């Protein structure tokens, strides 16, 4: 198959949007990944089944693409594992405090013009850009 | 059947469609190159060698979801409950949460979707990141509550 181009980025994005649309219509909830996953960790969450199924589908769909297309399997490790662990804590804490991540706020919220999601997206993209800049400075 | 009625008892066709939706989401991430943290960090690295891929991904995703929701809202009949489009207040919780997430995203190049997708390749980065993310989520939900769906 072809090598990766920006057309793949656009097509992949459309698939993410379509997947969110289907899951949103069927669940009646905004299917942001941090919310779907985070609520699985709350014992009181009543509707766990669709969340598990959706996330297993996500992992399986990605795994299938990794196997079938070399370009999708490209993974360039950028950070030591200690940094990944700290980042994981921050991403988990921040997405549940801020009630959304790149999918819930960045895709679904922005797409429907929700002001809180637009604000959150501008903030996390901006802060992430500054973080990447600072990291590249201090790790030189 | 209304979405709020289904709860834990979902009909099998629903679950199969949700499995397919999850599969499309994971495939979309992988095809878009978003499971490669170098590409994500390349987008965030605006002062370095900038990679525009993530902007194309967001354009495709926002365009598709936005168009679909608009169509369903205006021409889609009235069966079931669509996800909310209502905005919550832009308060300190939202701002702090988004900022903390931004630090973690910039540090790693992983947001929750790509981190989970990389479990599908048993990548050590994901095997470290995802449990840490789960701990962070549990702490936030214990301290601040997980009540609002967004």
Structure class of chain B:
mainly alpha
Helix content of chain A: over 70%
N-to-C terminal Cα separation of chain A, in Å?
Answer: 37 Å
Instruction: Estimate what percentage of residues of chain A fall within beta strands.
Output: under 5%
Please identify the oligomeric state: heterodimer
Number of extended strands of chain B: 0
* Sheet having the most strands of chain B: none
Task: Write up this protein.
The complex is a heterodimer of chains A (140) and B (150). By secondary structure, chain A is an all-alpha fold. Helix content of chain A is 72%, strand content 0%. The model of chain B is unreliable at 1-7 (pLDDT under 50). Chain B has 150 residues and is mostly helical. Chain B contains seven helices and no strands. Chain B is globular. At the A-B interface, helix 1, helix 2, helix 3, helix 4 and helix 5 of A face helix 1, helix 2, helix 3, helix 4 and helix 5 of B.
Helices, strands, pairings?
The complex is a heterodimer of chains A (140) and B (150).
Chain A: H1 6-27, H2 33-40, H3 49-68, H4 81-97, H5 102-111, H6 115-138
Helix pairs in contact in A: 2-3, 5-6
Chain B: H1 3-6, H2 12-31, H3 37-44, H4 53-75, H5 92-108, H6 112-117, H7 124-144
Features:
heterodimer; A: 140 residues; 6 helices; 72% helix; 0% strand; globular; B: mainly alpha; disordered N terminus
Short account of what is shown:
Chain A is mainly alpha-helical and 140 residues long.
